[in-house]
Amino acid sequence: MVKSKTQYICQQCGAKYSKWAGKCENCGEWNSLVEQMVQTESGKSAVAKSSSSGKALVTQSIDSIESSDDGRRYTTGISDLDDVLGGGILAGGVVLLAGQPGIGKSTLLLQVTANVARHQSVLYASGEESASQVKLRAQRLGADESDKLDFAASTSADDIAATLRSGQYDVVVIDSIQTLSLEEVSSAPGTVSQITNSSNVIIRAAKQTGTAVIIVGHVTKEGSIAGPKVLEHLVDVVLQFEGDRYGGFKIVRAVKNRFGSTAEAAIFEMDDKGLSLVKNPSAALLSERQNSDGSIVFATLEGNRPLLVEIQALVNPTHFGYPKRTASGFDLNRLNLLIAVLERRTKLDLSDKDIYVNVVGGLKLGDPAADLAVCMAIASAVAGRKLADDLVVFGEVGLGGEIRRVKATDRRVAEAKKLGFKGALAPIIDKKITFIHGVKDLRQALIDYLQ
Are 421 and 391 in contact (CB under 8 A)? Predict the structure, then answer.
C-alpha cells in the first residue's frame, strides 16, 4: 500500500524535518524549509524499490529521429503578442503569464481566448472568479459570442488534468496556478508543494494530448513570480506583464521562450473595451511634451522595437543635510552612479541638490543607452539650459565619463527620423552618418549641446 506524507526539506543543506520551523537547525538558514510530498511503500524504502525496478533505456541516434511536432500554432488575434510568443500559441506548449494584481492579465486572456475560440475549442478554468463574474467581463469585452469558448470554476488540479487528458480542448487557460490544489497534498493552495505538484500534473497532461496551456501566475511585492523557481523551468514560455496598473502603457515581454525570441515586446493601453495595441507608442508618449529644461527625448528599445520616450529631471536645493534622489522608471542605484560621474567628470556641483528623475508614460527602463539621456536631463535642469528640439539622445556612460556604443543604433535612428527629428546625440560610430552628432565624453556633450 502506498502512503502519502509530507516532510520539510531545507533548500540550503537538504536536512529533513517532520514539521515546519523558521530556522534550519542544521545549517542555521532562516525560511529555507520547503514542504514536499513523499510517497513510500510499506516495508520498503523508495530508494530500495527504484534500485531494482528500473529498466535500461532504449536509445536511438539523433539523425534517425522523426519529428512528430507539426508546429501547429493558434493565433491570438493580436499581432504583436503573436510575435512575443514566437508566432502564436504552440500546440502542446505551456505558457506562464505573470504580472501585478489588477494589471489586466485576466482581461488579456479573455480577449485572447475569444479570438482563438473562433477556430479552436477553448476552456477557461478559473479558481478566482465565479461564472457570473467572468460573464460580465466577457460581455464588456465582446467575448461572449463564441460557442467554442467554455468556462469552468475549479480549484482542483486533479480535475483540470483529467479534463486535459480527455483531449476535447485545443487551448486551456488556468487562472491561476496559486489557487489550485492536489488532493494528495495536505498543504494549502499557493504553497510551494501545491504549486510544484499541481504544475507537474497539468504539464504532463498537456504534453500527452498536445493541448496548449496558458497558466496565470501571481507575483511577489518585489515583482518576481511567486512560488518556487522550478515553476519557470517547467513551462515552455514565461511572459511578464509590466506597467502601471493605474494608467500608462502596459508591456508584455517574454523572459523565457523555447519556441522563439525573447527580444520582442507588445505594448498595450487599457480602455473600457479592454486592452488595445498601441500602434505608434513613440508619438503617443511625446504628444504632450513641452521642451523645457530637464526634458530629454531618449531613443530606447523595447525588445526589438525602437521607442522614443521623454526623460524628465527636476533639481532643487536641498533643505536637509542629506540630498534626496528619487527615480520613477529608472534604477535608483544607476542614478546615484551617474550623479557621481557628473560631479567627478564635469564641473557640476550636485552635493546640495535634490534630484528627481521621471520616465514619462509609466515605462521602466533597463536599457544602458539611457545613461546619456539621464545625465543630459540632470545637467539641463541644473543649468537651466535646453537641448535643441530636434535632437534625440542615447548612449552608455562609463565611469570615466566616456560615451560608449550601444546596440541597434540604426533602429533608433530610423525611429527618430520617422517622427521628424533632425539629429541624434550619440556615441561616435561613423563620421559619414550625418544624422548622428557624435560625442566622445560627457563633458563635450554638455558644453556643445546645452543651449
Answer: yes
Q: Which residues contact 29 (CB under 8 A, 6 or more apart)?
A: 10, 12, 13, 23
Task: Reduce the DSSP state of residue 350 to 3 states and report it.
Answer: coil
Is domain 283-449 in CATH 3.30.230.10, yes or no? yes
Number of neighbours of residue 123 by Cβ within 10 angstroms: 23
If you average pLDDT over residues 133-158, what whole number do you get?
A: 89
Give every CB contact of residue 43 below 8 A, 6+ residues apart in sequence. Answer: none
Torsion angle defined by CA atoms of residues 35, 36, 42 and 48, in that order, rounded to the nearest 10 degrees: -130
Lowest mean pLDDT among 38-42, 108-112, 365-369, 408-412: 38-42
Residue 2, pLDDT above cutoff 60: no
Integer Cα distance of 103 and 218 in angstroms: 11
Q: What is the pLDDT of residue 156?
A: 93
What's the grid cell of residue 384? 537651466
pLDDT at 344 over 70: yes
Phi, psi at 250, each rounded to 5°: -120, 140
| Chain position carrying cell 521607442 | 307
Which triple of cell numbers denotes residue 380? Answer: 539641463
The answer on pLDDT for 25 being more than 70 is yes
Tell me the pTM.
Answer: 0.79
* Stretch 174-199: mean pLDDT: 86
Domain formed by 73-279, architecture: 3-Layer(aba) Sandwich (3.40)
Cβ-Cβ contacts under 8 Å for 19 (sequence gap 6 or more): 8
The bridge status of strand 2-10 relative to strand 16-17 is: antiparallel
Specify which residues 33 forms β-bridges with: 10
Nearest-angstrom CA–CA distance, 214 and 25: 40
